[in-house]
Amino acid sequence: MALLTMSGSPHVHDNDSVEKIMWGVVIALVPALFVSIWYFGFPALKITLVAVASCVAIEYLIQKFLLKQEPTIKDGSAALTGLLLAFNVPSNLPVWEMIVGSFVSIAVAKMAFGGLGKNVFNPALVGRVFLLISFPVDMTSWPVPQPLMQGGFFADAITGPTSLGILKEGLGTGQTVNELVMKMPDLMRDFLGNQGGSLGEVSAFALIIGGIYLLMKKIITWHIPVTYMLTVFLFTGLMWLINPDIYINPVFHILAGGLLLGAIYMATDMVSSPMSPNGMMLYGVGCGVLTVLIRLWGAYPEGVSFAILIMNAFTPLINRGFKPKRFGELKNQKG
Amino acid sequence: MLKTFKSGGVHPPENKISADAAIQSLPVPKRVYIMVTQHLGAPSVALVKKGDDVKTGQLIAKSAGFISANVHSPVTGKVFKVDDFIDQSGYRKPAIIIDAEEDTWVDGVDNSDEIIRDITLTKEQIIQRISDMGVVGLGGATFPTHVKMMIPDGKKAEFLIINGVECEPYLTSDHRLMVEKPEEILIGTTILMKALGVSKAMVGIENNKPDAIEKLSHIAKSFKGITVHPLKVKYPQGGEKQLIKALTGREVPSGKLPIETGCVVDNVGTAFAVYEAVQKNKPLIERVVTVTGMAAAKPSNFMVRIGAPVSELIEKAGGIPENLGKVVGGGPMMGKALMSLEAPIVKGSSGILLMPVEESRRVVIKPCIRCARCVSVCPMGLEPYLLAQVAKNEMWERAESERVMDCIECGSCHYTCPSGRPLLDYIRLGKNKVGQIIRSRGKK
Amino acid sequence: MNNVILVAVISLSAIGATSAVILYFVAQKFKIIEDPRIDEVEDVLPKANCGGCGYAGCRAFAEGIVKSGTLEGFFCPVGGNSVMSQVALIMGLVAEEKEPMIAVLRCNGSRTNAPAKINYDGPATCAFTHNLFSGESGCPHGCLGLGDCVAACTFGALYIDQNTGLPAVIADKCTACGACVKACPRKIFELRNRGKKDRRIFVCCVNEEKGAPAKKNCEVACIGCGKCVKACAYDAITMKNNLAYIDFEKCKLCRKCVEECPTGAIHELNFPPRKVKTTAPEETTGQNTPTEVTA
After folding, report:
1. Domain encompassing residue A44
2. DSSP sequence for C63-99
3. Which residues pair with C201 in a beta bridge?
4. What is the ipTM of this complex?
5. Most distant CA atoms of chain A, gap in Å
6. Chain A residues with CB-CB distance to C131 below 8 A
7. pLDDT tens by residue, A25-57
8. Which fold has domain B287-360?
């Protein structure tokens, strides 16, 4: 008989692991990927594969040759970053720009901070914002969706603005919301994904399916997505009630742009979000308020990425200030 | 809607594979190793010396101090030696080693199976008897029971809670006791109620033991003031504070004892021991121990004398398996791995868990991904990731202000951590150091 | 265009000048007058901030000396006599000469001498493991080999020897700051006299158990037989709790006890090889690799 083992309790372990969590999120994103390929054709698939492959390769190379560690690409976090980054860019982005974005995501936003679990900001969002600032034209030339059967798989995309873009530009020239809504896809099309936009954000339907999967698998909790979306809904709803001529209805704000992708997949990124339930709710509210502020009064038509990145910076502070409800801490207890 | 405690908790696989194995009485071992101190509190003092003849049930070590407990001989025979012997953690502690010859009980002990229902002793006599017979909490913490019965001035007990939860996976010793000795347990409960001067007692049992719930509920009808409460299965419901919360909705304030909420909690095993001590004049010299685990050939429940070597129990449960990788004293969540199979059974041993090699090693440690699962499963509302980190960095003041001392060491955080981080190990280290600091502060 | 630049330059300069004036007055107002000797003393200290003197860093040590005005009870183990004499010069006092010390590991429970009886699987910290169980070899006093001392050493003078599984002291780097002594939960490290020509004799065991259980876990444990006590002509060896201890102040390095020890628990370091008289002791001491190297 070999020697027995000695260790502290507990002696059993849940079968969950980092790998299962990361690949679980990847699985939840698959429906959205299919919708993208359906509407944007081959370029969507190409840009996704490029992003995933370059993120994984960059992490591998950094760990192997720069840090001389055992590469940990199998844990799926690099692949997930790549996938989320691809979901946040237009499908006709040049391949080399995609690789630059992946490099910023992995090398600058993740590995420079110490790798998995140590990054302050969501790597995919850092990559996305870097691309947005560096290549603003390429990053805002959204291909118009052409369902697979009609446009042809390899067809060159015609580009057009997103609904949020139409709104921002139109309001700037003094048109009213009602005039502008005519130029946009209707809400049902938004819901299914038949709209211009970054390749992963277009279909609310597919994103919600993935979100339900994540909730069922207990990979995310309801706190961040629900408070985030609720805040956006209430804030924009209030503004809409005040003046429906210049503020569009709240349902539009929920379905348009990257809000669902951000609220369900990006803001809930474990590493960069707070750890206590009430902290998570505050974070969700903060993300929501910032998103609406940027969308309604900021220079950019879309504010999800910036809102989440700004709240990422507050995460350590929220963790310090917002503790879970301690057992045995009673309201009327002294001291 | 079944009751349970509110925040935190996990659902490890129950694996109650020995639930249907009736309690077997093991023959008296040839040589017993009785630890002189088997309880929480001041060490006891051995009363016998090498060569002395002792009888079963004779007092061999005396309580020394307020929080302390008596120890009695589990066998009849000659004291082989009074010397240090290894305990379950491998440290050598004072022990009385007795060579058993026969099994003659001391006078005055009723060793029959007859159930005695009339409680004749007064409140003070009951507490004295419990103290004399060396009864300690058999749930695992081994806190002397008679001390628990003495309510501090200014406090009042409202409820007696009998803990039949047995939330640890694998263990079935309490379960079997409830199925086989339900009436004795309830008489013991009535005795404890009398000693505490309370009129209400609640027996909490997790819903995965329907036979025990049914039996106790049925018999409880003829007992005044005792109610049986099925509870939703959730670990660590057997924790004192969690059980009080589940049954009464009250929370024990941080750093305080359960009596603050008017509750006193005792294990079903303790209730049975109290019955035997008070009604049958029988000291605590045997208990039910579950021998189980995926590597156990015959998962069993044994009524075994205190002081029997663990190896003997394993032998009786089908022998030492080929693929044995780890032996745990207690359940898989809170039990302690055994250093050696020579170590003896003590009053607090509820089970012996035999784990195969493939289960016995821990998973590979990965970086913390800040998933906050440890925070969400912590039944005490703590932040295990943070406590482990500050303990690792030796930031003891921060550990204290983050309430490391509230940790009940249930192990839910380590169990659930997807990165397999040894959170509880570091938290224990923190508790130990912070405890030392607090004690030294008290001395100044 | 020029105007804009001019405005910027002027306004920034104005802000800078105002701030400088404010800063100057604030600095004057809150100036703390300190004994200049504190700085002087601190300058000659090694600035390792190791805490070996018992103070929270070199500055605190310097303040302590200057405020109390005496050198009694103050000694910088890192700097040693040379630094203390410099400090004495600044203070106008006379430094007490102290013999140089070194950290000594009093355990030889290596993988071969004290084989593992169980595998430990958990975090590599002695402090936790000490509370969990008696150790892989079963010896409740011996070295756990998980390196809390190595982590505590700020001078890089300790490392875990992969062959023995025990920490080893690099004599040249050890400053006898005592960090390892504090870090070890089992108090195995001791600061001992470096000795003439670095020659030292010590009992390489801290086991207080009786002979039989001690020997059961470790080949080279002190079994408390007392032979060394009888052999010592200088009353340097005392026996307490089944454990022999050699007082380095009294030891004359005669090496008689080393020969007497039946388990080879007494170690001699840096002595020239013995003239061959008997055969037995050579063999026992031969397998006890001294736990010290010179880098």
Report:
1. 18-139
2. HHHHHHT--TT---TTTHHHHHHHHHHHHT--PPP--
3. C268
4. 0.88
5. 84
6. none
7. 999 999 999 988 888 888 889 999 999 999 999
8. Ubiquitin-like (UB roll) (3.10.20)
Query: Do residue A328 and residue B372 have CB atoms under 8 angstroms apart?
Result: no
Same domain assignment for residues A174 and A286: yes
pLDDT of residue A244: 87
At B108 the pLDDT is 87
B425: phi then psi, degrees, rounded to nearest 5:
-60, -45
pTM, two decimals, is 0.88
Give the H/E segment covering residue B180: helix B173-180
**Interface with C, mutate which of B92, B339, B437 (most C CBs under 10 A):** B339
Query: Which stretches of B65-193 are assigned E, i.e. beta strand?
Result: 71-72, 76-86, 92-102, 159-164
Q: Which residue has the higher pLDDT, A171 or C166?
A: C166
Q: Which segments of chain B belong to CATH 2.40.50.100?
A: 29-100
Q: Are residues A104 and A43 in the same domain?
A: yes
Fold of B123-280: Rossmann fold (3.40.50)
| C-alpha A31: how far from chain center | 15
A139, A174, A193 - which closes a domain: A139
Beta bridge partners of B287: B304
pLDDT in the model for residue A139: 87
pLDDT exceeds cutoff 70 at C289? no
Amino acid at position B158, single letter: E
Helices (H), A203-249: 204-216, 223-242
Residues of A in contact with B239 (CB under 8 A): none
Q: Length of chain C in residues, anyone?
A: 295
Sign of CA dihedral A194, A200, A206, A212: negative
Tell me what pLDDT residue A185 has: 73
The label of the residue with tokens 């974005």 reads A101
pLDDT at B247: 94
pLDDT (0 to 100) of residue B75: 94
Q: Where in chain B is the domain with CATH 3.40.50.11540?
A: 123-280
Rg (CA), chain A: 21
> Residue B79: what pLDDT?
94
Asked whether the beta carbons of residue C121 and residue A4 sit closer than 8 angstroms, the reply is no
pLDDT at A110 over 90: yes
Nearest CB partner across the interface for B425, out of C118, C128, C138: C128
Considering the domain architecture, whether residues A122 and A178 belong to the same structural domain is answered as no
Q: What does the pLDDT read at residue A2?
A: 75
Q: Report d(CA B443, CA C7) in Å as an integer.
A: 67
